[in-house]
Specification:
The complex is a heterodimer of chains A (about 130) and B (about 80).
Chain A: E1 20-23, H1 29-43, E2 48-49, H2 52-56, H3 60-68, E3 71-75, H4 81-87, E4 95-98, H5 114-132
Parallel strand pairs in A: 1-2, 1-3, 3-4
Chain B: E1 2-6, H1 11-27, E2 32-36, E3 52-55, E4 58-62, H2 68-75
Parallel strand pairs in B: 1-2
Antiparallel strand pairs in B: 1-3, 3-4
The chains are: A alpha/beta (about 130), B alpha+beta (about 80).
Chain lengths: ~130, ~80
């Protein structure tokens, strides 16, 4: 679908902005919310979901990509695995959002609502907008 | 009937809106049409890929621009 929008035009799922989205997908509700928010942002054309675990494994191709493109890190909780994963390869993300800092409590089940995902999407969009001003 | 098109204003979202308007006219169905461009609202409305189409509060399609024939079914309750 790439290429259907003119340069400078807003993109939806038809185009991909040059931003990498790296999310927690850990064993808790907030990990799954982080992952689903990254999927949604990708689906809205706001970036490309990227393999955080590949960076964590320090595979050269993955490391090279995060070092040359702006990254959004979405962590589920304050442990901050995604942030630390990036820091370990010398990368400071353009945006870092932590799901539990948005008023969503961590628990061991995977159930969550669409509103939870919307809250995280909103936080990332707001943070990216601040970065552009 | 309330028809909502979700997308931040790219070419495909605009194409979906135009196609919806044309299809509703062909079907002679009156509807309130709203183009929702605030992507912070999309997930709460059940849309995770744009462009999205919501008819009377229910997700009708997402991530594509349905054909006219598909839209006819979606906008006439599958009849």
């Amino acid at each position: 679908m790439a290429g259907c929008c003119a340069p400078g035009e807003p993109t939806c799922a038809c185009g991909t902005k040059d931003i990498l989205l790296l999310a927690c997908s850990g064993g808790s509700n907030v990990g799954q919310i982080a992952n689903d928010a990254a999927k949604a942002l990708d689906g809205y054309g706001q970036g490309s979901m990227y393999c955080a675990i590949g960076v964590g494994a320090q595979l050269p191709g993955f490391v090279k990509d995060v070092q040359r493109k702006p990254c959004v890190a979405i962590d589920g909780c304050g442990t901050g695995c995604v942030l630390k994963t990036l820091e370990n390869v010398g990368v400071k993300p353009a945006v870092h959002v932590v799901v539990t800092e948005l008023g969503i409590k961590k628990h061991g089940a995977f159930d969550h609502t669409n509103d939870d995902i919307a809250k995280v999407v909103g936080a990332v969009v707001d943070a990216l907008a601040v970065g552009q001003t | 009937m309330k028809v909502q098109i979700l997308g931040i204003g790219c070419a495909r979202c605009q194409e979906l809106e135009k196609r919806v308007i044309d299809t509703l006219a062909e079907l002679n169905i009156a509807a309130d049409i709203e183009h929702v461009k605030d992507l912070k609202l999309f997930a709460s409305m059940g849309i995770f890929m744009t462009p999205g189409l919501v008819v009377d509060g229910k997700v009708a399609s997402q991530g594509k621009v349905p054909s006219k024939d598909e839209l006819k079914k979606l906008l006439s309750g599958g009849k």
